[in-house]
Each structure stands twice: as structure tokens, then as C-alpha cells.
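User: Hey, my collaborator sent me this sequence without any context and asked if I could get a structure. I don't really work with proteins. Can you help?
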Amino acid sequence: MGGVPEGHSGWTFLTNHARVLAAIADDPGTRIRDIAARCRLTERAVQKIISDLEQNGYLTHTRQGRSNRYRIEEGTVLRHPADAGLTVAGLLAALDQHENPHENRPGQGAGHGSDGTEESPDDGSMTATKSVHADRHRVKS
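Assistant: No problem. I've predicted the 3D structure and written it out in C-alpha cell form, which is a compact way to encode the shape of the chain:
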């Protein structure tokens, strides 16, 4: 462990920022080392990406002992003009649906609100994104 992950040549569909955000959505208490291993990035690259996400309002963290607990700001709109209106929650929901096509859908499992969305704090943030329809998270113009 601790070495530089094996490189990848060519293009990919997801940016490293999206990969890191998805890893945090799956486990808000995850360590940078674990995110780096999952995303096949260096720990330093993950630290930089987390810093970028925090500076742009997509993510915050609180210290819990020797660990960090991350909080994703679900209502934050994606940056690219072609993604106008799509929120972070919508992106993560789409990724989750692709990764887990046979798992419970909104309203079919425990831990969901009466409208089928996952329970989250009232402050517009979330600690994880699971089973949320992407189209519900588009900002109306």
C-alpha cells in the first residue's frame, strides 16, 4: 500500500471528482486512504479533490476524533453548462441506479420517506445518496 496506483490511459466517462464524491456518498465516514484505493488515485490527489469539492460548496466535513465525517450538499447544482439544473443528488442517484439495478427502488425499502426519498437532514444536505430519482433533482428554471 502507499504506492501510486496503476495508471489508466485513454478517456473515461466519469471524472475523478465524481468518483470521489460517489465514494463519499457510499460511506460518509470513509478514510482518504480508502477513497484513494477505491478510485485508483493517490491519497494526495484525493485530498486535492476533496478540497476542490469543499471550496465549491459540494461537500463539508466535521472532525470526529481522529476521523472526518463528510456531508454532501445535495442541492448544489453541477458546474458544466450542459448539466444545467442537475444537482449532485441527481448525479449520485443515477450512478447508484446504474451500480445497483436490482436493489430496492424508492419507496420499496426501509429508511425512505413517504415520497420514496431517503430521509435526510432539514438543512439541504445529506450524508449519503441512495435510491433517489435523478429527475426529481433538476432545478426548475
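In plain terms: The chain has four helices and two strands. You can pass these C-alpha cells on to your collaborator as they are.
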